[in-house]
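note to self: dont lose this again. the chain is below, predicted strucutre after it. 354 aa total, dont forget to put it in the shared folder this time
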Amino acid sequence: MSTLPGRDHTVSSSLDGKGGTDSAAKVGKSTKRTGPTYVYYRLYTKLGALESNHPLYNNDRFIGRIPSKLFPPPHTVASIKRSLCKLEDLSEPDKALVFTPISSPAPKEDSTRLSLYAPSGPGLSEQDPIALVVESEKRTEEVSQSEKLPECPDDTDIHYVYYRVYSSEGKGEKKAKTSFDESDISLGRVNTLFIAPPHTAGSLKACIAKVEGLVTPGYALYKDMELFEDMTSDTAMSDTDVVSFQGDIYPGSDEDDPVALVNATANAAADQKAKPASDEPDSKFTKRARLTYTYDYKSCGSIWLSIHKDEIVCTDGVIISVMSLVTNAVCPGYIVINSKGEKGFVQRWCLQFI
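---
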């Protein structure tokens, strides 16, 4: 039997064991990525970053990762918003905004299509995550993370905004809750990745206000707080001024030349919430939980409790937010009492209710 030009019947028959040529054709045109693909993202409210229910790292729970296969088509911004909010137990997806890249000055239109299976692009790497800004940090359901996660490498390059806060009470500069230098305790700093997009003077001011337990947008006294680009500025920045955190030079990039938040007014309700009263009756701590990690949190702050895996603790079940002096992030969690009678703060993902 003669062989047609360009076709070897022996070879083509052996490709799929059926004597056909379909397999050969598929091999020749296949460009699909091999192995699992993931969508990387960061969550925000207008006040700053939120922890993910699906974190990539144990010690950096603000970068999330979810398999691409969990996102149904079509992969439009509107569809991706709904999927992310559902997977993260966040409400009101229709009010959420998507920014790609994070430095983008405007959100993506709902009709914009994002490719979740391409070799590269928005949301397809840790370095280029999708930013989802939601209306509220309140979760529709509490999720306890039991999966063992890797640690984020120590050599990660972190860009900070350095700042000073000046009280509206006229007492001059005050100790920063993110203070990192014992010789200059009024100097604070926030990770630029914790500032919600779009990056403006207003979003930076709101982030500092949240971190420092000050009044935030919506409070009458918030409009009186002013953010100055540096210590020598004569006029405050407008909330709508665009601020780029790309590169090495931006407002507050140098600890010797920080931004200044003036007329700062403490949020008494938030401050009280972050500091449990010492005379609070332990009879409220009736919910039992099992710790899922062992970690020494002493360096995070005096209110933090060092934990030991499988120890049973009691809590009142009320979620509060507390600043970590290590990550400079505001973390949600519970006040608990351990078996030794010690009371302190534990992040919500470190325990499971029983």
